[in-house]
Structures are given as C-alpha cells and as structure tokens.
Amino acid sequence: MNRKSLVMIALGALVTGAVALVHAGRDEPQRHKVVQAGAATSTAPALSGHVAETGAMPAVASGETPKALYDFNALPDPVKRMLQQIADAAQSGEIEKMRPVFESNELKPMVTTGYIDDPIAFWKKASADGTGRDVLAAMLNVMTSGFVRVGEGKNEIYVWPYFAETDLGKLTPAQEVELYRILSPEAALQMKKAGKYSYYRLGISPTGVWQYFMQ
Which of 13, 38, 68, 123 is placed for a possible disulfide with 157 were both Cys, Cβ 3.0 to 4.6 Å? Predict the structure, then answer.
C-alpha cells in the first residue's frame, strides 16, 4: 500500500469518527451567484464505491437548517473526483500541486469576494509562512467534517463544513467537538457568540466544478 493510500485511509477514518460523534472574469457573476446560494463566503477525499441516487440527499428548503451529511459515497461521481484531486494536492504539502486541479476545473475557484487571477499566489500571501501549507491543512481539516447540500437546480452546491450553514449558537456538545477540530478554541468561542461560522468553507457543484474555497 503506497503513502497516498494511507493518507486517504487516515482521512476517511477522521470522517468516520465525526459520524460517530454527531451521527473580474467572464464567469465571475455566475460564481458569485453560486456562492451566495450555497454559502455566504470560506477537505475530504472522495471514498471509493458506487454513488447513490441523487435523491438520497434531498435539497434543503429555503429557510430550513440543512442536516449534516457524512456519506461521501452518496456524492455524485464528479464531486467525488474533484474532492480526490483536492485532497491529493493538499496532502502533498506543495501548494503548486493545486494548480493542475484549477486547470482541470471549468473556472478558477473563488478565494475571496473579489476576482483573483492567481488563487495560489493569494493563498501564499495570506498564509503564515508564505508557503500556503497552513491553507492546505485547512482544506484537509474542513473536508474531514460533515457537509450539506443546499440550493436547487443551477444553484445547487455541496458545502464543507456543514457549520457554514448552521447556527453555531445551537450546536450540540458533539458538534462543538467537531468545531474544535477545525478552529482554535478562541476562534470557535468568538464564532459561537456571533452564531455564525466565518472560517474556510469549500463548495463544489454537482457537476464537479470547484466553486470556492474562502473565508
């Protein structure tokens, strides 16, 4: 078994643990529309197996709090493929490995509310040490949490973590443990008081297009 397989198994184990606990470009306007529908603003490997029927994860009605989902096998195949590409690049420790993932995408994922031509340069500048490795770590941490499916039709999107669509003031003790896996205690407490998650989130459309990874 190679190192990549071991990494994927380890990440899958984290997801299983979470289940036990909780049981200005041409495409810019379209991207903003999707982001607004799926998340206000902010990684997990795709697991092997056949995808379930899309109806297994019904879309959330307007105003309804979406339920956290953990079954990666029930994701559409294009979403699983994109998650796998992101996870492979992130676990390499070299943020430049993310560039081919961008190139395989229909468009560059949004990394902030304004248009950014080079997401990698943006992440390097925003990182603690200039390498972007803390951003890669954030991707992996976010992806090992549960996710939600929000929106309808062209606005449908899968969002990680589910906290992005959850009132943090109403978390169960088990959900708070999950939150602390993503955030420092100080940041988690501040967001709980505000009732809103404001850390990294990731969105992928049902067709496998990586829409955003931003705060």
Answer: 38
